[in-house]
Amino acid sequence: MRDKNGRFMKGYGPNKEERKKISGTLMGHKVSNETKRKISNSHIGIKQTEESKIKIGLASKGRKFSLETKKKLSLAKIRDKHPNWLGGKSFEPYTLDWNETLKRSIRERDHYICQMPRCNKQQLERTHHIHHIDYDKKNCNPDNLITLCHSCHTKTNFNRGYWIKYFKELNK
After folding, report:
1. What is the mean pLDDT of the segment spanning 136-150?
2. What is the mean pLDDT of the chain?
3. CA–CA separation, 68 vs 49, rounded Å?
4. Fewer CB atoms inside 10 Å of the end CB: C or N, the chain?
């Protein structure tokens, strides 16, 4: 619904026909590639609010991408440039020793409580994680394993050198 000046009234947007007419344009006006580039450049460095990020996420939820778009998205995420990329270390397989029995025994040893000081969350609905102190999946020695809640385990995936020292001193 539009007002007397032809603008959309608050709470009303364009219908399907108007959206088709507007798409690829700037409010119905055709724009040159140069103008599109200038608009794009003017948005560089502008931070989005959390609210707008949530709205964008909800708008694209369940969206289907073409194979071409999927390839472009895949190439855009160049792993080596991401600060958390460890050269594919997360794709290494666990040993045969890493099984539910071992994990259950570590949780029992730690009384199903997160071992991070000042956390001490008990295991309720969500099963606690078993963390390798030295980040080596092949080292399943019980002295190298510790029970952590989900949020504490997430914290330990950054600044790994710090956490290795931290847990080794904690176990002394």
Report:
1. 91
2. 81
3. 30
4. C
Single pTM value for the model: 0.52
Q: Report phi then psi at 145, rounded to 5.
A: -115, 145
The number of beta carbons lying within 10 Å of the beta carbon of residue 147 is: 24
Short-list 170, 89, 172, 100, CA closest to 137: 89
Instruction: Tell me the two tokens of residue 63.
Output: 């969206």
Residue where the block lists tokens 């460890």: 86
Radius of gyration of the chain (CA): 26
C-alpha to C-alpha distances, 63 to 11, 57, 69, nearest whole angstrom: 25, 10, 12
Angle 92-65-84 (CA atoms, 0-180°, nearest 5)? 30
Helix (H) or strand (E) holding 39: helix 33-42
